[in-house]
Write a structure and sequence with these properties.
- This protein is of the alpha/beta class.
- It has a single domain, classed as TIM Barrel.
- The protein is 46% helix and 13% strand.
- It contains twelve helices and eight strands.
- It has an eight-stranded parallel barrel, surrounded by six helices.
- Helix 3 links the parallel strand 3 and strand 4.
- Helix 1 crosses helix 2.
- The protein starts with 7 loop residues before the first strand and ends with a helix.
């Protein structure tokens, strides 16, 4: 099973909404075309940034179909398929056209806070039913439970389909342990846009990014330079983006990135509750940053 493409910049696509809060499929199609033209290496559908918890089963199916249709098999497409009910995750994997999906991204179960043994049992059950590569997703700030590096490495070694991890713990020692202990062919990816350059220096293979929705070209160039060990040039791009990346997360994701895309006239600044648009002050700071970046 080839996973050489799990490298570089993946973009965690937003779900654009119209003013009436219905999904804006025309804008989603345009966004796919834009990020592809601007250099992303693969697309991620129905991740956290897509406001997936607020989207119906039917909408999810239509969103995936829209992304696949717009993509026309140009880039690999990763499907978000995670949750805190293992049986429901298995069902999700049956509800989409997996022949056109390149991998699944599956988050550590949230809210019920499983032990490390519970995480291992959960992902091994998914692995047994999977037909595609699995990218684990560790984001303790959202799930309430951290998957230890030793747990991730055990899954990488013992599962047939676990080929990568999106590590968003922000714990750089844990990040180093993952790189140091990863078996051959296992990709360690970042889930923290502001840390990716440092993590590339440690041996990460790429990032699944929020900022790649709105700062696509500059962000992708930074990651490519870092992967090529051109850190002097990459560092300049990193610092040119750092304030903007921090603003994207000041009032939560995806409120920040939707504000940025609205400023860029790419989508409406509409979210589904309980997420709300950023404050006027943050919006104005983003507006100033985007004008300066341009």
């Amino acid at each position: 099973m080839s996973v050489s493409w799990i490298r570089g910049t993946g973009v965690a696509l937003i779900t654009p909404f119209k003013k009436d809060q219905s999904v804006d499929f025309n804008v989603l199609e345009k966004l796919v075309h834009k990020v592809t033209a601007d250099g992303v290496n693969y697309l991620v559908a129905l991740g956290t940034t897509a406001e997936t918890p607020t989207i119906s089963k039917e909408e999810k199916q239509d969103i995936v179909k829209c992304i696949l249709s717009a993509n026309q098999q140009k880039l690999p497409v990763v499907l978000g398929a995670g949750g805190n009910n293992t049986r429901s995750v298995l069902q999700m994997m049956q509800e989409h056209p997996m022949d056109e999906i390149s991998a699944i991204l599956s988050v550590v179960p949230y809210y019920n806070k499983p032990t490390q043994a519970g995480m291992i049992a959960h992902f091994k059950e998914i692995d047994r039913h999977a037909s595609k590569p699995i990218i684990l997703y560790n984001v303790p700030g959202r799930t309430g439970a951290n998957m230890n590096a030793s747990t991730s490495i055990q899954l990488a070694k013992e599962c047939n389909h676990v080929m990568a991890i999106k590590e968003a713990s922000g714990n750089m020692v844990q990040c180093m342990q993952l790189v140091q202990e990863a078996p051959e062919g296992f990709s360690v990816l970042s889930g923290d846009d502001d840390l990716i350059l440092a993590q590339l220096a440690l041996g990460f293979q790429g990032v699944i990014s929020v900022a790649a929705n709105c700062f696509t070209s500059t962000f992708c160039n930074m990651v490519t330079l870092g992967l090529n060990n051109q850190f002097d040039e990459a560092r300049k791009l990193h610092y040119s983006l750092l304030e903007g990346i921090q603003l994207l997360f000041t009032e939560g994701n995806p409120a920040g990135v939707k504000a940025a895309l609205h400023i860029q006239s790419l989508c409406e600044n509409v979210l589904r509750l309980p997420v709300v648009p950023v404050s006027d002050s943050t919006y104005q700071l983003l507006q100033t940053f985007i004008k300066r970046l341009a």
